[in-house]
Amino acid sequence: MSDYLKAFSSEHFRDQICYTSDPVLLRHLIVKTDEFSQAQEAMQCEALSEEAIRDYVDTMMRGFRSHERFRQEWELSAIAILLENTFTDFAEEFLSDLSRLKLAELNLPIQVAREAVERRSQEQNMRSFNVTPITFGEIPNLVVFEIKASAAFDNMSMKEAQYA
């Protein structure tokens, strides 16, 4: 089991984040922890694999009991945030599945996963934004922008898009 993920179950980690049940504030608090920064860096360097995360979550979920508060809700929430900016099939599946659950025992991780899915959606919309300068002939300083975007500008007129 990965030391990076084990750090999410430490008292030190919990003491930094356990005083809120608001998913947006919890996300903010988790992202500021050293444990999260180290895990995020490990993922970027491939020292922490998706398989290790899957195994950790599988082990953690063995402790799930119906009608009992899930004791590892902080760890599961941290993993959801960790996968928020990971655009792989595993991350998509994990966040999507967790965000669609309707279980009181997992309320906080579910809310955090929904926040992560929303942020991923916004990030993907921003990534699809393309601006290509087009110049006309020999006219200096005249540049018209061709705007290409997916969902970000679907509901805007071209005039609104010019000023966005």
* Uncertain stretches of 5 or more adjacent residues: 142-164
Mean pLDDT: 83
Q: How many domains, as an integer?
A: 2
| Main beta sheet | 2 strands, antiparallel
Strand percentage, roughly?
A: 5-15%
Gross morphology: globular
End-to-end separation in angstroms reads 47 Å
State Rg: 20 Å
Number of helices: 9
Q: Can you list the strand order of the major beta sheet?
A: 1-2
- The H/E string reads HHHHHHHHEEH
Question: Using DSSP, what is the number of strands?
Answer: 2
Could you say which structural class the secondary elements and strand pairing correspond to? mainly alpha
Helix percent reads: 55-70%
Characterization of the model:
The protein contains nine helices and two strands; from the N terminus they run ααααααααββα. It has about 160 residues and is mostly helical. The protein has two domains: about 120 residues; about 35 residues, no CATH class. A two-stranded antiparallel ribbon has the order 1-2. Helix 6 runs parallel beside helix 8. The longest helix is centred in the C-terminal third of the chain and has 21 residues. It is globular and about 40 Å long. It starts with a helix and ends with a helix. The C terminus is likely disordered.
